[in-house]
Amino acid sequence: MIRDERGAIAYLCQTVTLTVMSSRSSPEQTDDRLAALVDDLLVRDPAVHAAALDELADVGDRRVVPHLIETLVIHEIGGDWEQFGFPEVLRDRSPPRYLELPEARWPGVRDALQTIAEPDYDSDYAWVEWETWYSQQGIEPLEGFDEWKLQLYRSYLPPVGRLLDAEPRAFDLRDIRWGNCDPSFLAACNEPDFVPGDAVATDAESEAGEYDRYLDPKDAVFGFTVGDTAYAVPRWVLFPHELANVTVDGTPLTLTYCTLCNAPICYDRRVGDRSLTFSSTGMLLDGNKVMFDEETESLWSQHRGVPIAGEYLDGGGDASLDVRPVTQTSWAEWREAHPESLALDIDTGYDFDYRFYEDDIGFFRHYWNDEDAVQPGVETADGALPEKTDVYGVTTDDGTTVRVYPVDDVPDDGVWTDEIDGRSVVVLRDETGDVAVYEAPPTPVERDDDALVDAEGTRWRPGRQALAGEREERGESGEPDGRERPRMPGRHGLFFAFRSQYETVEVGPTGT
């Protein structure tokens, strides 16, 4: 596309150059010319972009496909924010200013891709289809791609590019994808208030008070406890934040949520003598959310809770966040198990229409449930389980291996016995119906209503933090006898997230 006289002159010159190059250039000269053309894609002039894309299409070298994919994503999202912006609840607002700039367009980029590569995508979501296709190809880019990509992000996605520029890095820059947003749009929910659950429950018998009654019994919640106090955060309220930094009972926590992986994970955000404040980078690594801490701008894996770039990785890479148990269940189930539970006050101070997600979490169900829908940036593989299997995983002490259990297979009234890191464990459903893993008492272990009975006949009561042994008095269960078997914190998510994030993934028993 030739947009003006300057573009026409540039196009004519490059066409002449191409003709000469095709007949007389050496491979080294061709590479130099291709490098110059992809550098033109960084120039702040859409006419120069268009001319460069025309010539790249004529040359037809697949090594430029990675460059074109990167520009295509920015071009398509910036050009149609109302359809592609994230979070969805902000699509009726203006996009980030850097996406509105006229130079943030690459006219003809989709045509160039279709000329160079095999696919011919023409749907409204063609850029997503291109990303999915590209993730399966293993195309080696031109030399210098890493620095080129960093400059693209610094220039055209400045809040994201600043964070991506962290060093050292424990990942390949080609595996990073922009996720349609930045830290200002996907803002963390910082220090929200928690109020009595009855004050916000729609079916509470008490009279309406000062708080908005918004929490229905069927609503999915993420529940956790600190000390003797239980807390519930509705999924649909956390959705447009994907992350909440809270301090409860003096304990600083971050409740993270990767919407593409359907993975709520709770961490203690203390590292050494610091309490870190986490936020979302707006980027994905192998389909999983990338976080950063505001204190050092180090990048962190949401799923593994370890640094992957920046100061904390430079310090030896041995920093990690302690995982806290988080339950994914309904408000009705959580409240029945924890009648005095506090719940998030929906008046967070952020100008989000949370009810947008109350009964509609958009295309994410498509990603969660459709095996043919591939999350952006994920290289598919044949694994021990289908990619979209909902699993609960517990890692080994060194964090390199994770043992996963398909959630739907865990029996409602039974118990599995397994082994993690050489320790016997039991896997069962807790009082909310979610999966829980505990260090095992003497095996074999049987389920007896809401208790376990071990090989010695001792009854154990599953609790939030541990299995509690009970004294036997006249053949009936008595008070706790002080013995405990700790609960092993785990992670929820779709199987592909575990497969792509850990060195080794093992599948636990799938039967009694």
Automatic annotation (TrEMBL):
Pfam families reported in the protein's UniProt record: DUF3179
Domain of life: Archaea
Segments for region (Disordered): 463-491
Biased composition (Basic and acidic residues): 469-487
InterPro entries the UniProt entry points to: DUF3179
Protein name: DUF3179 domain-containing protein
Organism the protein comes from: Natrinema salifodinae
